[in-house]
């Protein structure tokens, strides 16, 4: 696990009667719509005995109802000023481990130990993609994930080939998880209201045998290059990584563009390149 100290003791809370001043640099927008909160918790369905980790609990809007149902939670919060507020609100409700750290520096596999994690969170819009990719790196220890994200990001995650919003995030997530858009959340459900619509997305990791684990590094390079120059044909955007003959060998038209390829097409190309580079036994 990354170098952090779980916060289990805290000094007497101060100024808890006043609202926390949200910090723009942390991308803070706190959920305050009780009806939406109830629907989110219902979708997650936390149960006693489950290893639940919440990223960015904020003022505990989802934390408290989940804690009442599960009895135990781990929360990861970057803003140190929120730590005593969360601890105070959770006191007497259940057992809470508070990790005051950037989630990108937290080793989720070490945090899981011998158990599978259920990961939930209201992710800051400015770093949502890095957090999603961080979770994918630890997918073997995760049973499911539920995130609040910018609606546009959720649409990209679930997009099909040919869509204008289909891209790197779509391919990499769909090769790793079943992606399901669950619930729209309007701006007025937050304090302060963001300038964009939000949505809840559910992610269920595919079985390890259904994920192209052995070829993920190559797939990631191909996808990054292909969508990094998405207006170019694949023969141009993948120049230096795969030849036109390589593409044709797995039924990919070199004249096509990245958004026309299904996720499995990138898998087929990566496997072909791996076989091609493997020395033939003499």
Name some characteristics of this structure.
single chain; 282 residues; alpha/beta; Rossmann fold; Helicase, Ruva Protein, domain 3; 2 domains; eight-stranded mixed beta sheet; two-stranded antiparallel ribbon; 19% strand; elongated
Question: Can I get a quick summary?
Answer:
The chain has about 280 residues and is an alpha/beta fold.
Molecular structure report:
The chain has an 8-stranded mixed β-sheet. Strands 2-9 form a two-stranded antiparallel sheet. With 282 residues, the chain is of the alpha/beta class. Helix content is 33%, strand content 19%. It has 2 domains: 6-210, Vaccinia Virus protein VP39 (Rossmann fold); 213-277, rRNA adenine dimethylase, C-terminal domain (Helicase, Ruva Protein, domain 3), CATH 1.10.8. It has helices spanning 34-44, 63-70, 83-90, 108-112, 128-136, 151-158, 168-174, 216-228, 234-237, 244-249, 263-277; strands at residues 6-7, 30-31, 51-55, 72-76, 95-99, 117-122, 142-150, 177-185, 190-191, 198-205. Helix 8 (216-228) packs across helix 11.
Helix content: 25-40%
CATH architecture of the largest domain: 3-Layer(aba) Sandwich
* Number of separate strands: 10
Which blocks of ≥5 consecutive residues have pLDDT under 50? 5-27
Q: What is the name of the CATH class of the largest domain?
A: Alpha Beta
Report the order of strands and helices. EEHEHEHEHEHEHHEEEHHHH
Largest sheet: 8 strands, mixed
CATH fold topology of the largest domain = Rossmann fold
Give the count of helical stretches: 11
Radius of gyration: 21 Å
Count structural domains.
2
- Portion of residues in beta strands equals 15-25%
